[in-house]
Amino acid sequence: VQLVESGGGLVQAGGSLRLSCVASEFSLDNYAIVWFHQAPGKEREGVSSIRMNDGSTYYADSVKGRFTVSGDSAKNTVYLQMSELKPEDTGIYYCAAGWSQSSAILTLTAPLGDYDFWGIGTLVTVSS
Predict the structure, then answer these.
(1) Ranges of H-type helices in the chain
(2) CA–CA gap between residue 35 and residue 49 (Å, rounded)
(3) What whole-number distance in Å separates Cα of residue 89 and Cα of residue 91?
(4) Which of 62, 60, 2 lies closest to 31 in space, CA to CA?
(5) What φ, ψ does residue 43 adopt, rounded to 5°?
(6) pLDDT tens digits for 81-125?
(7) Backbone phi, then psi, for 29, in 5-degree steps?
(8) Vertex 25: Cα angle to 120 and 113 (nearest 5)
(9) Which pLDDT score is estimated for 49?
(10) Given a cut of 90, is residue 1 above it in pLDDT?
(11) Is the CB of residue 8 less than 8 Å from the CB of residue 18?
């Protein structure tokens, strides 16, 4: 296993969670990392990205102002701080690593097949 997410759980609407994505066997510094959200019965969608070598970040409109992505190279870990959570944020959150120079990956428009590594996901449930 090369990417492992953690930090999911049950939270009330308006609450916060911090997700972690830890890499093993490769350095995240060479990649762009994207957080995906898959709501029940829906397709996986990118919500935030970070390019580790320069700290560039990008957010989907649905999470802008509520979610913050960050990286810790020393820990080979990327975080997703989620605040002001809404019931529609419920779902499985995955992290994925892709080519750092891809503007499509950074802007959350690359096809899922463009990613080199995927985690197995962590479940977030937001109750109303």
Answers:
(1) 103-106
(2) 6
(3) 6
(4) 2
(5) -80, 160
(6) 999 999 999 999 999 999 999 999 999 999 999 999 999 999 999
(7) -60, -20
(8) 50
(9) 98
(10) no
(11) no
